[in-house]
Amino acid sequence: MASLTQRSSGLVQRRTEASRSAAAAAAAAADKERESGDEDAQSRRGDEQDDGDRGDSKEARLTLMEEVLLLGLKDREGYTSFWNDCISSGLRGCMLIELGLRGRLQLEACGVRRKSLLARKVICKSDAPTGDVLLDEALKHIKETQPPETVQSWIELLSGETWNPLKLHYQLRNVRERLAKNLVEKGVLTTEKQNFLLFDMTTHPLTNGDVKRRLVRRVQEAVLDRWANDPQRMDKRLLALVFLAHSSDVLENAFAPLLDDQYDLAMKRVRQLLDSEPEAESAKPNANELLWAVVAAFTK
């Protein structure tokens, strides 16, 4: 009887210890889950904060074409200068570089004989949609064209500057108006009608001045406060923006607010960029050959 009582008390003790062990394990698991939950929550909060920061940065969502057009638009009037005959081809150059930076286009291999940038054909690397109607339209033309064309030819074809009637269908029409509508959808511009005596014209005045101010400041800082004195050390998109804004004759608008000394220094450094040798720069590590091919097309 005593033996049975001892066995019973030992069983109860083992059960109690087992219960304590299970309870401790459950508590540890709960603590770990709470810690994991806290970390996930912190991670989510961090991601949301990053997304919020990116969302607040309006210019980060603009394409090169939209940025160049925004630099060229008169803030109150809502249209580009009637005397600017460079922006049309400049916007087509922006499209090629944008597609190149997004991994959709590239230049053909230079070959053993080392073809020049302007002699090499543009080939489609990926036909995945970009989400931008103009870019997708240009990409479709380039993908379906055989034999391929050069950068210089595509700038002319997309601009409609060709004497070959069989190639007129390559022209992208109403580009400035379509880009302006994109900026209206993004809350940067608005739409109005203005009367010019003989005709009415749809205009797109600036409504969100912060976006343009940030854009202008980025361009100014690229050649002033953050000047790298080496094209390869500059952000590729910002480098392309400076080149294409100059080629589109709208870079002056970004430098107009500068003091005389700052203006002179900025233009001096822009000239240094323009004096860069595209062939040599494109051969350097991590260089984007298509970007430099477009630069060569405008500075040749």
TrEMBL record:
Pfam families: GPP34. One of its GO terms (molecular function) is phosphatidylinositol-4-phosphate binding. Residues 1-58 are annotated as: Disordered. Residues 30-58 have a biased composition (Basic and acidic residues). It comes from the Eukaryota. GO terms for cellular component: cytosol; Golgi cisterna membrane; Golgi membrane; trans-Golgi network. It is a peripheral membrane protein. GO terms for biological process: Golgi organization; Golgi to plasma membrane protein transport; Golgi vesicle budding; retrograde vesicle-mediated transport, Golgi to endoplasmic reticulum. Coiled coil: none annotated. The keyword Cytoplasm does not apply. Keywords: Golgi apparatus, Lipid-binding, Membrane. It is found in: Golgi apparatus, Golgi stack membrane; Golgi apparatus, trans-Golgi network membrane. Its main location: Golgi. Residues 1-11 have a biased composition (Polar residues). Belongs to the GOLPH3/VPS74 family. This is Golgi phosphoprotein 3. It comes from Scleropages formosus. The gene is GOLPH3.
